[in-house]
Amino acid sequence: MILARRLSTKAQTRVLGTKAPAQMRVLSTKAQIRVLSTKAPAQIRVLGIETSCDDTAAAVVSGDGRILSETNRHQHSVHAAFGGIVPGLAAAHHQANLPLVLRQTLLGAGLRIGDVDAVAVTRGPGMAASLGVGVAAAKALAAVHALPLVGVHHMEAHALLARMGRDDVRFPFVCVLVSGGHTTTLVAHDVNRYTTIGATRDDSVGEAFDKVARDLGLAWPDAQDGGGLGPALEQAAARGDAARFPLPVPMDKSASAASPDFSFAGLKTHVRRMRDAGAFDARAPQDQADMAAAFQRAAVAHLRKKTALACRRARAMGVDFSCIVASGGVASNAAVRRALAAVAEAERVPLECPPPRLCTDNGVMVAWAGVERLRRGLLDPYTFDFIQRWPLDRLSEMPYPARASSFDP
Ligand code: KG4
Ligand code: ZN
User: N or C: which end of the chain has fewer CB within 10 A?
Assistant: First the structure.
């Protein structure tokens, strides 16, 4: 219905056919950046595109942090039958879905692509074929409209989202990034500048939630719920008794207790071994719930202890952090949020977590990271490629040839 209100593609071609070439000229990127520097943040609009994993997402966000429109097509029903994400299928579905996700996002914001001030896209890390779909689309859109292009690090986008529309979430801050691909604590010194404190030595916490949920025989949640199997485990844990199957907290002994790193593979394997030894029945709902609760308690205790350690390390580095930011899919878990809030309270700083729905992958975080990077002139050439593996603390080593002036008032 909404689509019908716009000119059909054929009609648009006819209109173009009547225009003199001079009327079709667009401003060069440099000229656009000059125009941007005169705009108030509230007038800036950035389109963000996310296709690094299994969500085809886009959003338009204003320079002062208002979400003007957002769309997210999950692929859970596609991958559920395989028990995990199939990279080739994910890329094929991004290919199929991205054009209409983009169209719906622009229509939702009441904008045409030419009204947008910049295009931001997840450049990495993630699955190569999936990243390629979003990056190719963003480059083409930006290039034909001579728009500034911003390549975004997926984990920086998770982290920076805590600052959207908030003047009080200031650098430096301690950052806990917990997702399906990452489990890291860092100091965020500024946009583009991060120092890693701790990282996982094996599985990420999200991976462990997913694999344990699978081993417990939990069903993949409803297709429109974000976040994969993690929410299924959280829901089961809420019905369970964590004390029935006590599990050891990882890296809690002697030497490894002092390390800020994480490890979740041992905990995951512990659950599997107990199942294989018949200690619980993965088809019995109460056993599933009690085991889910036990796993979640140990995993959350591990996150809490290592985050506290990261805060101590940050202070030892002389970093006077303003808050703890927690983001990434696992930060939508209520038990994780409660545990990290307790760490923040002990450190006498606030815990800043995006709302649960924005902790999992979305287009808003990419658009907002685009705003933050654009503000600092961190633009990318139309020729850039995606980066599959990309440590966040290597971000500042990237060359940024097209430096724009700030659009801050
Ligand atoms: O950030 P994200 O959406 O995608 C990646 O960048 O990986 O994180 C997805 C991960 C998945 O492993 C998912 O199971 C986990 O976050 N997750 C959760 C919850 N919601 C999502 N884990 C535990 N509890 C949740 N409520
Ligand atoms: Zn993510």
Answer: N
Decide whether any atom of ligand 1 lies within 6 Å of the 333 Cβ. Answer: yes
Residue nearest atom 23 in ligand 1 by C-alpha distance: 230
The answer to whether the CB of 180 is under 6 A from ligand 1 is yes
CA–CA separation, 293 and 211 (whole Å):
15
Q: pLDDT digits over 343-397, tens only?
A: 999 999 999 999 999 999 999 999 999 999 999 989 999 999 999 999 999 999 8
Distance 208 CA to ligand 1 centre (A): 10
Instruction: Please write the tens of the pLDDT for every residue from 6-58.
Output: 545 555 455 545 555 444 344 456 656 666 778 899 999 999 999 999 999 99
Question: Which residue in 206, 198, 203 sits closest to 309, CA to CA?
Answer: 198
Per residue in 96-121, pLDDT (tens digit) is: 999 999 999 999 999 999 999 999 99
Q: Is the pTM of this model over 0.85?
A: yes
Q: Whose CA is nearest to atom 14 of ligand 1?
A: 230
Closest-CA residue, ligand 1 atom 2, reads: 329
For residue 279, how many other CB atoms are within 10 A of its CB?
12
Closest atom, ligand 1, to C-alpha of 361:
3
pLDDT confidence bin for 409, thresholds 50/70/90:
very low
Strands of the 45-50 sheet, one edge to the other: 67-74, 55-62, 45-50, 118-124, 149-153
Distance, in Å, from the CA atom of 74 to the CA atom of 109, rounded to the nearest integer, reads 21
Task: Tell me if 330 CB under 6 Å of ligand 1.
Answer: yes
Atom number in ligand 1 closest to CA 334: 26
DSSP characters over 265-316: HHHHHHHHHHHHTTSS-TTSHHHHHHHHHHHHHHHHHHHHHHHHHHHHHHHH
DSSP 327-387: ESGGGG-HHHHHHHHHHHHHHTS-EE---HHHHSS-HHHHHHHHHHHHHTT--B-TT----
Task: Output the CA 329–ligand 1 centroid distance in Å.
Answer: 3
